Amino acid sequence: MKLDSRVLALTAVFSLNCNAYSQDPVAPTSAITEEQELKPLVFYQYATATGLELEIAYQDNLKTQAPGKHLIFVGEYGKPGDGLYIGDVGGAVKTLQRALQGTVEVKKYPADFTTDQDILNILATSGQYNSAHFFGHGSEDSYWITLLPSEDSLTRQDFDYMPQQQVEQLRENLASEGYWKFYGCHMAADSGMTGENITEAITENTGIPATAANSWVFIHGNRKKGEPVYMYPVSRAEYQRYFTKDRKDYPIEIPDPLYTGESAWVTYTPTIKTQE
């Protein structure tokens, strides 16, 4: 199997305790008052081989779903030869477009957005949609948008301090079974320094289900050869093989200290906190 490229990432963490919380999921469109406190439940889809199998299964399932409206955000991902080049993100976007059923709107940096608030405004004003997917560089606490993190990145703080009116706008536009998914490294990391990640913050503060990788995200496939292109949470064994054999020049700690257990797509779903 040829792995065309890798996404870069930073460092951090979060901790999650589900004690004293309702086990009943909260739909994104359910009314939630300011007095109610959301707490995400976390679910893991672990890599059983390289990790590629997870994204293939996800997109195969998409092809069986009813038509809807979907949004795709494509951040800056560099050019071949650049140190921060992710790989064929354009091919991965096209592969996902073919799997999504219904209408797909692709928003690209910098033509359609340049800041975190641009993204949030699009999500709040686009009309009802079923899913939003985000491609590009990331780390445990942010979706970078550009090649490096900046003040324009979409961060955990955007959601921790989001006005209630903006929360309601985001929730009203998302269909009852809707969700967000991020294709960036370590955006659901569960180990490290800060004890926080952006994916958890999204669900905790807005009630929107969100999915991201706890690990490095690799790209597989070659659009020039007509193959589908996938971005997926790479297994520990596969990333260790890459960094110790293919990229001996790249300083990376083995095993990856940013997450425990195996690589996974990590999904947060909202519940409402209750008293014990």
Model description:
This protein has one domain. Helix content is 24%, strand content 26%. It has seven helices and 13 strands. The strands form three sheets. It has a seven-stranded mixed β-sheet with strand order 2-13-10-9-5-3-4. The longest helix is centred in the first third of the chain and has 11 residues, at 52-62. The protein is globular.
Main attributes of the structure:
single chain, 276 residues, alpha/beta, 7-stranded mixed beta sheet, 3-stranded antiparallel beta sheet, globular, disordered N terminus
Give the arrangement of secondary structure elements.
Elements: E1 3-6, E2 38-46, H1 52-62, E3 68-74, H2 89-99, E4 102-108, H3 116-125, E5 129-135, E6 138-139, E7 142-143, E8 154-155, H4 156-160, H5 164-173, E9 174-183, H6 198-206, E10 210-213, E11 217-220, E12 230-233, H7 236-246, E13 264-272
